[in-house]
Structure formats: C-alpha cells, structure tokens
Amino acid sequence: MVIPKRGEVVDYAIGSRRIRVLVVSADAYTRAYPVIVMVHDRADGDVPGVLLPLPGDLAGGGTIDLTRIRFADPAAFGHRHGRISPALASKVDHGLRRLLAL
After folding, report:
1. For residue 60, what is the domain's CATH number?
2. Is residue 57 part of a domain?
3. Quick check: is 2 in a domain?
C-alpha cells in the first residue's frame, strides 16, 4: 500500500475511476485518516484560496480545488506524481485556513 506524504500529488481510485489528488493531512495522520483535495485535469485559472494552478511539470498540471476536501481511503492511493513546491504549499495552507475559518 502506498502511503503518500503531505504535499504529494497522487493517483486515487474512486470506484473504477482514477483521479489525481493532493494530500493535505499531516504525515502523522495520513496512514489512518488521510485528508485530500481534488485536482482537476483542466486549468481553471487562479482564484486565491479556492482554485490554485498545479504546475504543468507536476502530473501534467491542472487545478487544485480546495473546496473539494474529503477523507480518503488509504488503500485507494496509487502512483505518486511528486510534491508541490513550498510556495504552493503555503498557498494551499492559507486557502484551507480561510475556507475552514481556522
């Protein structure tokens, strides 16, 4: 079983579909209670705190959608594509704090 780390973009199985997700939970919780946000294939622009562009050199690019946050089944993780940059991780953190009023 693949256990990704916080900030990694990985494939994730939902039924027979495979999508890309970004792991946002702290590494200490990811083995049992991973939290993810969805990554869209298309580039939806940059809406700070909601939609963030994923660089094209990481898993083919796309858009990180912070509004699509969910718990994940650790057994459904697949291929690791790589890790987002520290600058993008900071934007993700800021966006999640804003969306969740933390």
Report:
1. 2.30.30.110
2. yes
3. no
Overall number of domains in the chain: 1
What local confidence, expressed as pLDDT, does residue 62 receive?
93
Give dist(CA 55, CA 64) in Å, integer. Answer: 10
CA 77: distance to chain centroid? Answer: 12
Q: What is the pLDDT of residues 33-50, one digit of tens each?
A: 899 999 998 777 777 779
Residue ranges making up the domain that contains 75:
8-99
Measuring CA to CA, how many Å separate 5 from each of 16, 42, 87?
Answer: 24, 24, 17
pLDDT of residue 3: 86
CA 76 to chain centre: 14
Does residue 3 form part of some domain? no
pTM of the model: 0.92
- Decide: 14 and 6 in contact? Cβ < 8 Å: no
Give domain status of residue 69, yes or no: yes
pLDDT digits (tens, 9 = 90+) for 74-100: 999 999 999 999 999 999 999 999 999
